[in-house]
Amino acid sequence: MRSDSSTRHFRLGVVHVSLTTPIRRLLEQYSRLYGHCQTEVPREPVVHVTVCHKPFSLRHRRRYEVWADGQLLFEPARFEELVPYIEWAMNLQIPRILPDYLQFHSSAMEVHGQGVIFPGQSGVGKSTLTAGLLACGWRYLCDEFALVHCDTLELAPYPRAICVKHASFDVVRSMGLRVCGGRRHIKPAKGRVGFVNPLSMRPGAIGGPCPVRYVIFPRYSQGAEPTLIPIRRAEAAFELHHVCYNLLRCRATGLNVIAGMVRGASCYRLVSGRLDATCQLLRQLVDKADQTRLLSA
User: Fold this and answer.
1) Is 284 helix (H, G, I), strand (E, B) or coil?
2) How far apart are CA 145 and CA 57, in angstroms?
3) Which of 63, 185, 190, 219 is the most buried (most CB within 10 A)?
4) pTM of the model
5) Does residue 58 fall inside a structural domain?
């Protein structure tokens, strides 16, 4: 690494990251996105991400290298790809640095102290729905991963900036959220993307550890009337194990964690259509459950 490299440290909920690079423009860009998370001294364990220029070669168009904890992970060709690849490098290290957490491919929100997860593969509308719920007053945990502690079964915050596809910019902006860097970031397989800083909406937008009370599998269908369909907990558990990144590392413990999660949760499939109507439907679900809980207390 060059002697003119600089390092900055960030705390994103339970994930600590140190970014080292000689590329000043990248460091400034990442710091603008995560300035509210910057810290002087990171707490172990830390993901050490290093980004540097690749040695020049006439044979190869790859111009950069992205390393994480001493391992070369990616070789992007364009500067615009660097921030998405840094995020990806961090995500890949989570099972190693946080062995006490199950990592699900899912967005995660907190409302009234209750955790809500939206598991699913890419393309089902998780990030756009997360941005919409944030605008409606829900508190943000993560747009791509639900981290569940194996002992407490609580969701943990990992408040990365919300990554929004170019096609969703107008919808997200209509909810009052600011999309940053829409012309400056490219994510492989998704094209142009922008990022939403949750705190740009309001102070206190980041949630804290909370129990999982809702497991909702979303599927976007353009023009569809938003619909919630209750499903059995066993069905939810079966699908959750398909979107868990580190289930095999936890072995039987991981299956027990999933069983415990769904035992205390209400489980649904969600057909989402227009964003505002979908958010209203979810607010009604949570509000009705809160009223029932108060009456039975």
Assistant:
1) helix
2) 37
3) 185
4) 0.91
5) yes
In a domain, 189, yes or no: no
Residue ending a domain, among 72, 97, 122, is 97
Lookup: tokens for 94: 């989570």
- 93/127 same-domain check: no
Quote the DSSP letter at residue 206.
B
Span 258-296, pLDDT tens digits: 999 999 999 999 998 888 999 999 999 998 887 776 656
Q: How many domains does the chain have?
A: 2
CA distance 110 to 125: 18
What 3-state class would DSSP assign to 187?
strand
CB contact at 8 A, 167 and 220: no
- The answer to whether 53 touches 64, Cβ cutoff 8 Å, is yes
Question: Residue 60 is part of which domain span?
Answer: 6-97
Of the CA atoms within 13 Å of residue 42, those in its CB half-sphere come to: 20
Listed residue (184, 205, 208) closest to 195, CA to CA:
184
> Based on the domain organization, do 39 and 139 belong to the same domain?
no
Domain for residue 179, yes or no? Answer: no
Same domain, 22 and 108: no
